From TrEMBL:
Role summary: Catalyzes the hydrolysis of 5-hydroxyisourate (HIU) to 2-oxo-4-hydroxy-4-carboxy-5-ureidoimidazoline (OHCU).
Gene behind this protein: uraH
Domain of life the protein comes from: Bacteria
Catalytic activity, reaction form: 5-hydroxyisourate + H2O = 5-hydroxy-2-oxo-4-ureido-2,5-dihydro-1H-imidazole-5-carboxylate + H(+)
Biological source species: Cryobacterium adonitolivorans
Name of protein: 5-hydroxyisourate hydrolase
InterPro entries: Hydroxyisourate_hydrolase, Thyroxine_BS, Transthyretin/HIU_hydrolase, Transthyretin/HIU_hydrolase_d, Transthyretin/HIU_hydrolase_sf
PANTHER family, sorted: 5-HYDROXYISOURATE HYDROLASE, URICASE AND TRANSTHYRETIN-RELATED
Gene Ontology terms describing biological process: purine nucleobase metabolic process
Domain called Transthyretin/hydroxyisourate hydrolase: residue spans: 2-113
Family: Belongs to the transthyretin family. 5-hydroxyisourate hydrolase subfamily.
Keyword vocabulary terms for this entry: Hydrolase, Purine metabolism
């Protein structure tokens, strides 16, 4: 088993109250001139991605994009948000960053997890 990534995520489907499995996730780092892709993954059966990106990242700006349109389409649901993008800053390189997503077809929320 590999070490946990510096940045992890968890997606919960607020309509069903269940983990959102098989959601595509992309992690990127802001660099001069744009964004650089660091990793891609899919949420597991528990809605988690524990190995999203490297074991350590430098301070800076990052974004996680969730492919929510594909997730809802696979369930026969329409959604207002085909993608959810969360941009956040890593300011302390010594701590773990957990970025959860609470999802429904017409709303979402996020917070700084632990």
């Amino acid at each position: 088993m590999s070490a946990r990534s510096h940045i992890t995520t968890h997606v919960l489907d607020a309509v069903t109250g269940s983990p959102a499995a098989s959601v595509g996730v992309v992690l990127e780092q802001h660099v001069q001139g744009g964004w650089r892709e660091l990793a891609t993954a899919q949420t597991d059966v528990d809605g988690r991605v524990a190995d999203l990106g490297p074991e350590a990242v430098s301070a800076g700006r990052y974004r996680i994009t969730f492919e929510t349109g594909s997730y809802f389409s696979a369930r026969g649901q329409t959604t207002f948000y085909p993608y959810v993008t969360i941009i956040f800053d890593v300011d302390d390189e010594s701590v773990h960053y957990h970025v959860p997503l609470l999802l429904s077809p017409f709303a979402y929320s996020t917070y700084r997890g632990s």
